Amino acid sequence: MSDDGDLNVQREIEIDKQLAKWHNAAFEGIAALDIGEAMAPGLALWVTDGVPPGDFLAAVLQNNLMDAIRYADSHNEDRLLNWGRVLYDYVPSACYGSPLKYSNWIDKGGLKGVLLAGEIVVDLSEGRD
After folding, report:
1. 35 φ/ψ angles, rounded to the nearest 5 degrees
2. Residue 86 is part of which domain span?
3. At what angle are helices 3-32 and 80-90 packed, to 10 degrees?
4. How do residues 52-80 score in pLDDT, each as one tens digit?
5. 66 in a structural domain
6. In a designed cystine with 90, which of 24, 26, 46, 58 is the match (CB 3.0 to 4.6 A)?
7. pLDDT tens-place string over residues 12-51
8. What are the DSSP E strand ranges found in 1-129?
């Protein structure tokens, strides 16, 4: 294998480690804030790969309160404040907050795409205070 190939493999391994670190910290936060296990896979795919989630989570990520309320089931309706905490404490700010950030995150391919492109992402593995 060429030196470039070795570097690419090493880079992919490092990216996988960073994604796993985020994933572990985020799921601890999701559990602590009672978001619900059913919502965790959609949030994870959104953050790591930029896969658009369902209508409720898409509205939350785009900072659209009225649509978030409209699309929320009874579980999520009671936890809108907790969703704000999860985003603030465990999710890169580049992937939520406005429709533009939402569409840019899809275009970049999520955290994987950002890391592969060498863009800087704040380390949120420990959460925020």
Report:
1. -75, -35
2. 3-116
3. 150
4. 999 999 999 999 999 999 999 999 999 99
5. yes
6. 26
7. 888 888 888 877 777 777 777 788 778 888 898 999 999 9
8. none
Flag whether 74 is in a domain: yes
Burial of 101 (C-beta count, 10 Å sphere; 0-12/13-18/19+)? middle
Question: Is residue 45 situated within a structural domain?
Answer: yes
Tell me the C-alpha distance between 63 and 50, whole Å.
17
- Amino acid identity, position 49: D
For the chain, the straight-line distance linking the first and the last C-alpha, in angstroms and rounded, comes to 45
Helices 3-32 and 40-49, packing angle to 10 deg: 150
Q: Alpha-carbon distance 69 to 76, whole Å?
A: 9
Both tokens of residue 62?
């785009």
CA separation for the pair 58, 36 (Å, rounded): 16
Contact 34, 68 (CB under 8 A): no
The DSSP call for residue 33 is T
